[in-house]
Amino acid sequence: MGSSDFVILTLFLVLVSNSWAATSQSVQEKFYFCIALNSELSIPFSTAFYAPDNASFSSILQSSAQNLRYLMPSVPKPQLIFTPLTENHVQAAVQCSKEAGTQLRIRSGGHDYEGLSYMSELEKPFIIVDLSKLRSVHVDIQDNSAWVQAGATVGELYYRISQKSKTHGFPAGLCTSLGIGGHITGGAYGSMMRKYGLGADNVVDARIVDASGRILDRESMGEDLFWAIRGGGGASFGIILAWKVRLVPVPAIVTVFTVPKSLEQGATKILHRWQQVVDKLDEDLFIRVIILNADGAQKGEKTVQTLSQALFLGRADRLLQIMEGSFPELGLTQKDCTEMSWIQSVMYIGGYPGNTPPEVLLQGKSLFKDYFKAKSDFIKEPIPETGLEGLWKRLLEEESPLMIWTPYGGMMSKISESEIPFPHRKGVIFKIQYLSRWDDDKPESVTKHMEWMRRLYNYMAPYASMFPREAYVNYRDLDLGVNKNGTSFIEASAWGTRYFKDNFNRLVRIKTKFDPDNFFRHEQSIPTLPLMNRKRGKRLIH
Ligand SMILES: Cc1cc2nc3c(=O)[nH]c(=O)nc-3n(C[C@H](O)[C@H](O)[C@H](O)COP(=O)(O)OP(=O)(O)OC[C@H]3O[C@@H](n4cnc5c(N)ncnc54)[C@H](O)[C@@H]3O)c2cc1C
Ligand SMILES: *[C@@H]1O[C@H](CO)[C@@H](O)[C@H](O)[C@H]1NC(C)=O
Ligand SMILES: *[C@@H]1O[C@H](CO)[C@@H](O)[C@H](O)[C@H]1NC(C)=O
């Protein structure tokens, strides 16, 4: 501990003895002093603590929290937010949370659908370890790779790559404010998935802090743990400090389009056709469909609008040929197509207005925030037109529904289900994400929209994958089940097999080996095997 830190610590002691005197030694104090007394921390740490009485506490808590539903007054708040400045601080956070008797929530980009990176219904007290100050990105074009710290957003990574090369990219999420730390733990898909697979398929190394506070890389953690962290879900195995990712080639010029079709313009028939062709298209072509309510032709009328939005890894003339041969029903024309650089396509698909300079990505800010509930489905047989019509009826009942249909096939079906924990591969035509969004904090609104979403999900059951009805872990859905204190792995397998299919069992064994005391836990963390089953579990691992 440096002498300036000592002065700050003394000052802090005076401060806390005033403001926190009520409890003899609060969790905040225990945690703070534990970190302060960890003499290996050479870098000043005293500016990294936000207690609830600090003027910046709320703004730091809200900073990256994407689902406003989990900031409502009734939702439990942390005792402290710790924003580590170095890797050592993250190690200390693990050790000191044990000493202080508190649970950790780990936050990178704050996009967890159920707020699990910044709130906890299960644990009291809890502290947030917010990695937003660990966000360096080192791109090495010669090595075709980049080391990215957990707190960086995918937009920052894309931007840094584009500054070094116009013909390299990385195949992760479409929304540029996603934190790379949490995002890759669940898979990380984006507009190049049909060509290159997921972000997690393109990770070559990682640095993590494990449950005993050690820093491990791929070599020291071993292939089991390295397998588990690439898709087994966030915050079950350790704290990711950084990912080393493999860059992929992109053409200097790519092409994008967005073609709108309302029901009156034949959207149903075109979408029916889309389902038959979309997973078989050229791998350079990714056409997703965004579906939402819109005003109809007549005043006061509502319709359903579909937006077919594409990235093509090539020029417009070749794209038009491919579309003419494989999907003429969409009626794509030259004037629908825009050629641009890959980084501009990232901005386009990320929803930025045209001509926004890509430097805006360095701010790592999300474009919008709202109250929302979401769910996901994987579709293996085209949904018949009658099924689509029932779906439109339900969408039109809701104020601000949104669906995003994401095509699979290509590289996604060439990677085996057990290569990494993310299992939704061969046989999937597309994934549906269902969303309902609203903008007021009335508890009745929460109930109303959650109920609509659950009815919609029931309606879709016959069209979705079955046994299990698969779901994307990065679209976390607590309706699928939550860990209670002492939840057994059998109960947890109800949601675990939906997210991971058979990989769930291997995840449980790896969890049991590397975090036997279940230090890293949350509402949907991978459970450990009960003590009596562990012998067998161990044997299966070795
Ligand atoms: C608007 C929006 C758009 C999205 N678009 C896409 C998309 O295009 N493609 C896609 O695949 N997904 C998408 N997602 C889902 C997204 O991948 C997940 O929400 C992902 O978990 C976000 O990571 P994060 O770091 O931003 O979130 P966080 O909320 O910080 O973390 C998510 C989970 O991971 C844990 N975690 C966070 N950091 C770490 C760490 N360093 N080490 C270990 N565990 C950690 C958290 O505790 C939490 O459980 C989107 C989500 C939103 C809200
Ligand atoms: C709030 O916390 C920050 C970070 O630790 C610190 O720099 C600042 O002085 C604190 N402000 C107040 C009013 O305590
Ligand atoms: C959870 O269970 C453990 C033992 O299984 C117990 O020590 C602990 O107090 C329980 N916590 C809560 C919040 O019930």
Automatic annotation (TrEMBL):
Residues 74-250 form the FAD-binding PCMH-type domain. Residues 1-21 form the signal peptide. It comes from the Eukaryota. Keywords: Alkaloid metabolism, Disulfide bond, FAD, Flavoprotein, Glycoprotein, Signal. InterPro entries: BBE, FAD-bd_PCMH, FAD-bd_PCMH-like_sf, FAD-bd_PCMH_sub1, FAD-bd_PCMH_sub2, Oxid_FAD_bind_N. Pathway: Alkaloid biosynthesis. Its cofactor is FAD. It holds the Pfam family FAD_binding_4. Gene3D superfamilies: 3.30.465.10, 3.40.462.20, Uridine Diphospho-n-acetylenolpyruvylglucosamine Reductase, domain 2. SUPFAM superfamilies: FAD-binding/transporter-associated domain-like. Belongs to the oxygen-dependent FAD-linked oxidoreductase family. This is FAD-binding Berberine family protein. It comes from Abeliophyllum distichum. The lineage of its organism: Eukaryota, Viridiplantae, Streptophyta, Embryophyta, Tracheophyta.
